[in-house]
Model the fold of this input.
Amino acid sequence: MTSKVQSLKAFLGGAGRIALVEVAGTKGSTPREKGAFMLVSGAAIFGTIGGGQLEYMAIDKARQMLFSPLEGEMAAERPEGVVSEGTARASSTAAATPPDGFAATLPSRGRETRARLDVPLGPEIGQCCGGRVEVLIRLVDTALAKELVAAADAEQAQLPHVYICGGGHVGKALASAVALLPVHVVVVETRAEALEGMPDTVETSLTPMPEALVRKAPAGAAFVVLTHDHALDFLIVAEALKRRDAAYVGMIGSKTKRATFRSWFLKSADGSEAEFARLVSPIGGDAVKDKRPQVIAALAAAEIMAALVKAGQRQSTGRVPLPEFVTGRAR
Done:
């Protein structure tokens, strides 16, 4: 499993000179919120502050700070790639990594170490958001690199868990869809072969008793049940519905399967109507009549994320505070 923290460390350790570009303030409608950030090197980018001309301007300014005019021209000739938060790609000409594991930017004499841009998102730059964004750009040294990693660790520790019980066609498609979201995905299976080919960013768990993992899951988790065995589905869902702190409990299937489960749950599993009412089945809703795995996965992923966001808003007061550069309180 490759986490965002690992990808961030790889970028920091191999991209050479790097600038941190963060949204320090916003007014009105903007593409990203205060605290959003990206990293810019001579040949690669990690993360995003929203794209468009705003991002191009910030990248250009960051690279002016990173390089002298001649170095900037050389950097511009190298292939440039936008790197997602889950992957990292750096220039092959990156500087050697120091012993502490991070490639620190050591500013040369006279080079700017920080800059601010105050950008109106209007016709002047070819954007029509209508708001205004303040962008803070800083060169990354070893200390700031460690702050970035510490913040990523803190953020990762707060990610809600999504348990996908079943690695069949829909399970694989759902794992691929949900892996793109800010969640910790765990695919649970009783069959080893069904766990092959899962995305690198997904955790896998091979167990003869998936329902036991449900009991141990952290509060606020989402459970999606789509195994190869209806009886196993019922056992897992029954266990998940007993978790009053679950953000989402979904089961793949038809209205007939839902009705059969209800009868069994109430008569044989000591379940209640209130608990049963929390079950989402079929997953993804029934507005779109399309049974292709990828379509079901896309609809279910949106449904799951909506449930997690709502649950997170209800519990937001208990979250661990993140470092200043993440919350947008720029120093």
About this structure: The first strand starts at residue 19 and ends at 27. The two ends are 34 Å apart (CA to CA). Residues 78-100, 104-109, 317-331 have pLDDT under 50 and may be disordered. Residues 293-314 form the longest helix (22 residues).
